[in-house]
Design brief:
alpha/beta; Rossmann fold; binds iron/sulfur cluster; nine-stranded mixed sheet; 13 strands; four-stranded antiparallel sheet
């Protein structure tokens, strides 16, 4: 089956060139990933700042073009879509950004952000039907229309504003929502509610979710699968339970150790590892984690580790697992679990 959205061997470089032919900064390197239309999945993409996760979101949304490789929507290059395909893409793939406030015009009531897609995509034949549709959609994300419509953005809480963005995405009945740090600017008490809204959209409306975050805890709460990114490459990928509970890549292990625990006898170690001074020369093949890795070997400075399939539902880009079979770059979906998450998100 043709994937809904696919990144195929995508590399994105920023800067570089000029008369001194400086090398650019690699934001994403030879990255392949796909989201199928069926079955719907929730995949969390996790990484710290500079890992390439936001660049990936922008490439998948067509907001940036790859330096090499392709981003395909239903098998067609995003840059070459016909007007009709582009229209379909803009309905099928929705985005929720980190800061909902930036999307609102403070001079308009919040109704405006919901009415605009209804008009643009002709979702309702009359004003009354449009109002009904908007109210139904607000209810579907747990908002009361009488408490939200008719207000200006500043009259609502951050959590309400973000849930209106979830409702806006839902209005178009997308196949995929790309949520880029959607809860990083709301209170901790509201995070579970917004994540639960997203999960309910997945369960009730069969929408796939790509949840992009720096926060492993919320990734674990919502994801079925997880991709851990480091400096533009996948470090570890697979079933979220497996990766979070038994991390194999040294970088994932570091991320897990860095989650603060409410236990005074278990001191938080933070997540900075000193560099070991072994960074290879720029441009040479190597593991991107080699200068921070406590297990670095000679081979790590000479070759880029491919993904090794260490378990049925997991692959790890690390030479510590070189006895496991290699995974071809385009075969990531082989290790992704497809079973729907059963539990609800704890408040
Ligand atoms: Fe560490 Fe080598 Fe594995 Fe990279 S490939 S994470 S340097 S052991």
């Amino acid at each position: 089956m043709t994937p809904l959205l696919e990144a195929r061997n995508v590399t994105k470089l920023f800067g570089g060139g000029g008369i001194r032919k400086k090398p650019g900064t690699v934001a994403l390197h030879d990255f392949s990933f796909r989201v199928d239309a069926e079955p719907p999945t929730i995949t969390a993409i996790v990484g710290e700042s500079g890992s390439g996760k936001t660049t990936l979101a922008r490439l998948l949304l067509g907001l940036a073009a790859p330096t090499s490789g392709e981003v395909l929507y239903r098998g067609k290059d995003l840059r070459q879509l016909t007007t009709e395909d582009r229209h379909r893409f803009l309905r099928d793939v929705q985005v929720i950004f980190q800061d909902p406030y930036e999307v609102y015009n403070p001079f308009y009531k919040v109704d405006h952000v919901l009415e605009t897609p209804v008009k643009k995509f002709h979702l309702a034949p009359t004003r009354e039907k449009a109002r009904e549709l908007i109210e139904e959609t607000l209810n579907a994300v747990g908002l009361r229309p009488d408490e939200t419509l008719g207000r200006h953005p500043h009259q609502l809480s951050g959590g309400q504003r973000q849930r209106i963005m979830v409702a806006r995405a839902l209005l178009l009945q997308p196949r995929l929502i790309i949520a880029d740090e959607p809860v990083s600017m709301v209170d901790a008490s509201l995070r579970a509610t917004i994540l639960e809204s997203l999960r309910q959209l997945h369960l009730k409306f069969s929408i796939s979710i790509l949840y992009i975050t720096h926060d492993l805890t919320t990734a674990y709460q919502i994801g079925q699968n997880i991709l851990v990114m480091y400096r533009g490459e996948v470090a570890e990928v697979g079933d979220v339970d497996l990766v979070v509970k038994q991390p194999r890549h040294p970088y994932t292990q570091l991320l897990i150790q860095s989650i603060p625990q409410a236990d005074p006898t278990h001191p938080w170690q933070g997540h900075e590892l000193p560099t070991n001074g072994s960074a290879p020369a720029a441009g040479a093949a190597h593991c991107t984690f080699v200068d921070r890795c406590p297990y670095a070997m000679d081979i790590c400075r000479r070759q880029t580790p491919p993904l090794f399939r260490t378990d049925e539902h997991r692959a790890v880009a690390c030479f510590l697992y070189k006895e496991s079979p290699r995974l071809a770059g385009t075969d990531l979906e082989q290790v992704l679990a497809t079973a729907a998450p059963a539990e609800t998100i704890p408040a």
